[in-house]
Structure formats: C-alpha cells, structure tokens
C-alpha cells in the first residue's frame, strides 16, 4: 500500500482525497493543510500551508509516493517545479503552464494565436484607458482582473455605470494592473475538464457550475454554489465540440512548448454561433470535482500514475448523475463569522464534502465562505437533485444555499 499527498484544504481536495482512498493501492491520504472535517471522511490533515514549499517537499520525501496539487495559488507559484526539481512524483502544471489560468491576458493571447473561439476582448493598463475603452464598448460588458481571483474576479456589468464602478475599484487596488474588457456572450455555460500529459488526455463528462450567489443566477459571482454532471441539456454534438476544444488547446500548448501534465478546465459558453471559451483553469474546478469524480469507476491512483507515465486509459463511468449543493456563510462572498455546524452521522458522511470547517472546544464550526457540499446521486438529474436537497436539509442549520442547483438541466 502507498500513501498520497493532496495539496489544499477545500471541498475539491476532500473529493480528490476520497477518489484516491477508493484505490485498492492507497493506504492513507494526507491533505496539506486540510480542514477539520476531513478526518471524519478518512483523510489525514497535515499542518503545512500550501505556500511552505520546503516543508511540503520534506514531508513528501518521507511519507508519500505521489503528490497531487489542488488549488491554483501554489500552481501559479511554481510548487510543481520545485517538486520536480527535487525528483518527486507530482501531478500538476508547471508555473509557466499555469499562466493559462494565472494571467487572463496570457490566456487570451494564446486563444488568439491558436484560433480558438472566444469573446472579443481588449486589455487596458490604466483607469483612464479603461474609461475611454468602456465608452466605446458600451454595456453589457465583462470585466476581468488579470490575475488569480478564486473564481470571483469577474464582473458582468449590465450598465456602463456598473462597468465604470468595477474598473475604478480594480485600479484603486492596483493602479497599474492589466484589466481585460470582454464582449458579453449569451448562451448556456458548461465546464469541460480533462487530465492530461502532453497530448495524452482523459476527458470527463460535461458539468455545470452555478457561480452566482442567488437563485436565478442573481447576485455577485462566487467560487461556485453547486454543480451537477452529466448535463442532459447539451447534445452529443455539443459534447463532442467541447472535447474538440480540449484537443485543440492541448495541441496549442504543444506548439508553444508548454509541456507538462495537469488538469485542464475549459469554461465554455454555448452560444448561437457555437461554443466559445470563457476561461482556462489548470486544476480541477470546485464544485465540479465533487460531482465528476464519483462517476469514475477507474482506480484514480492508477489513472494518475498512467498519465505521469504518458499513458491514458478511457474513463469508466458508473452511468449515474450527481448533483452537489454547497452550504455557505450567509454573508458569502463577503466575510462572515463562525457558525456551529451539525455533525453528520455515519450515513450522512457518505455524501458530505467538508471545505470551510474548523474545530473548537465546542465542536465543529464554519470557517470561511463555502462550508461544505452535500451530494445527491440518481439515475437521472431529477433524482440526484431531490437526494441532494433532502440530504442537505438536516445539515444546513443557519447556513445558506441556492435552491435551484440543476434547474437548467431539468428545464
């Protein structure tokens, strides 16, 4: 039996840890730094922060056969490069490759260079330049901070006044930051993810995230309020088109000398003119991971090893639909305060995915925006959605959820 280290602390890392634990080859899954809910689902938190590169390398050398990096910040900071330099097996993109997520302008130039369909955009570098450009663009318009923003760096401005306020806020924080002004696309969003190494890839089914805070896609952008997969509203032709864009992106990486392995997440908008790329991430999405990995019947540890060795086996899927509902602090995406949590029983733990969970002398409390997810499973989306909300009800307490996760797939 081997041990695995997962870097990160949220719901995505809980889902990854669970997937590794299902492998008959894996004895223990360590998560650095993890969260206080993880021991309840069989994972072992390690008190090493994601940014403590030397300590993570020292731990991995002694305790594990493989490291899998979950979040974007350590990837953008070059954690994989450091592990590779130390001769340690690690799955994730290098710092150069992670620029496809860490810099919106880098990604946009990549898409243009390789003729990948995306929204028209302009990069500006100062507030006056942004204000002049907005007057020409008009509204609605999409405004994106150039760097990492944990899923919350996008403003969809429906009016020119809202757009001006958004760029003013960005430049108040950093007067020189590049900002992307982007054409507003209409259609339905989907996420397509693939694990890859060079041209070799393992493609997952489409998922749909719910980024807006409130029902009906109202309110501010968040890191994600829930997701479901597969997505019955998208045709086989649309799913193939999504997979083709993954292939074209990987070919573009090879053409640019962006070698390496990792997870490619392509955020898509299916418009009347066909699918267009909204964004790239170079890691598993949260909350998509929580509804994608339970579908996989392959040995996830072996799947990862095979990709590191340059081999890719097709996914074996269980044919079920999964719906994940996220419980959040009522103030999310703003700052909240600790709430006491209902402790799941043994049956509830099977469907509970801890994220912002801390432990105090009085028991478990919330610690952050997204606290946990609850997963429903069914033969179709209606059953998966029903199960998810039924399982959430006794655990929600004072926390907030959206009540319409999966509604677009049922429409």
What does this protein structure show overall?
With 411 residues, this protein is α+β, with helices and mostly antiparallel strands. Helices cover 32% and strands 28% of the residues. The strands form six sheets. A five-stranded parallel sheet has the order 3-2-1-4-5, with helices on both faces. It has a five-stranded antiparallel sheet with strand order 12-15-18-22-19. α7 (127-137) packs antiparallel against α8 (160-173). The longest helix is centred in the middle third of the chain and has 20 residues, at 236-255. The model has no long low-confidence stretch (mean pLDDT 94).
Key attributes of the depicted protein:
411 residues; alpha+beta; 5-stranded parallel beta sheet; 14 helices; 28% strand
Largest sheet: 5 strands, parallel
**DSSP helix fraction:** 25-40%
Mean pLDDT over all positions: 94
Q: Indicate the radius of gyration in whole angstroms.
A: 20 Å
Please mark out the parts with pLDDT under 50 across 5 or more consecutive residues, or reply none: none
Going across the major beta sheet, what is the strand order? 3-2-1-4-5
The tally of beta strands, per DSSP, is 22
Number of helices: 14
- Distance, first to last CA: 46 Å
What's the overall geometry?
globular
- Hey, roughly how much beta strand do the residues contain? 25-35%
* Structural class by sheet pairing and helices: alpha+beta
